[in-house]
Amino acid sequence: MKVLGIETSCDETGIAVYQGGRGLVAQAVYSQTDLHSAYGGVVPELASRDHVRKILPLIRQVLDEARLSSASIDGVAYTAGPGLIGALLVGAAVGRSLAWAWGVPALGVHHMEGHLLAPRLETPAPDFPFVALLVSGGHTQLVEVIGVGRYRMLGESVDDAAGEAFDKTAKLLDLRYPGGPNLARLAERGDPRRFRFPRPMTDRPGLDFSFSGLKTFTLHKLRDELPRAVDPDRTRADIARAFEEAVVDTLVIKCRRALRETGHRRLVLAGGVSANRRLRERMERVMTDEGSEVFYPRPALCTDNGAMVAYVGWLRLMAGQQEPLAIRPRARWSMLDLPPLP
Ligand code: ATP
Ligand code: MG
Ligand code: FE
């Protein structure tokens, strides 16, 4: 079965084809970064319009590159939520219409389930069960994963998501949108010993996170240090490094705790922040010492993409799930409401 996947939940138009037995056949992502960077963040209405502009040419491009005709597609999966409602509507309307025109089943996919299962597109793929750390622009969650659709929430952020903290802190550092990767780049040049930031909520039991305090901490550090800095660029890099160290350390501490508490020996990292090099390295080192394995996808499958949507669509369509002609995009949608696969 060949499934066309469509991702439009935020500011990336992602298109891919996944085929059972073969894997990822083709994929393309168009990022709207340049469009939104002038505003310092995603402007929802502009995002919707740009998806409208890009979606059909990108679908054509992916099918052409894979030398596939539309007649060879057996199902269509589109992101139905969570995300920006206007952006979701574009992917859902186009995806559902194509499926109807082609006479194949369609399915609305949960964006975070896409992130969660994307590491299974890689070799070696993590077997179930595992603990997943979902770290993206809108979510920071620790999830126990028994199988597809069999999830238990172990902990989540009580305020900002890790990616959101990266982005907001990057703004304080005068870095361009998208802040996360730019902050990580600046931190490369920073000295990890000069400043030490707190590791929020690690001194008490539990698996929840809080990242908004780190952003405020950065603001105060910048106000204290920059006016009297001999080399302000150096100071900015050192602060970026201290921030990144604090986020990475906090995530590592909670992941280790989650593995110990559940007894699982596999940890999966997913979502945009899992592209962070230092996070991957530190996590791998610490968890290997603990006798556990760490899995994460290539960076292009960490951030938003169509491949994860095609893959989840394939899994669920194969299991017989599909949707009627009506589309039902949801800005908010809990992953715990998804039906388990047998
Ligand atoms: P969600 O998936 O929760 O709906 P989203 O789709 O906007 O949110 P993703 O596309 O998964 O999020 O990830 C984008 C986030 O990842 C941004 O916050 C970005 O700053 C962050 N990010 C990407 N690369 C890095 C990196 N190397 N270091 C730190 N953060 C990064
Ligand atoms: Mg994005
Ligand atoms: Fe995402």
TrEMBL record:
The lineage of its organism: Bacteria, Pseudomonadati, Pseudomonadota, Gammaproteobacteria, Chromatiales. Residues 24-311 form the Gcp-like domain. Substrate binds at residues 134-138, 167, 180, 276. Its main location: cytoplasm. Binds 1 Fe(2+) ion per subunit. Its cofactor is Fe(2+). Fe cation binds at residues 111, 115, 304. One of its GO terms (molecular function) is tRNA N(6)-L-threonylcarbamoyladenine synthase activity. This is tRNA N6-adenosine threonylcarbamoyltransferase.
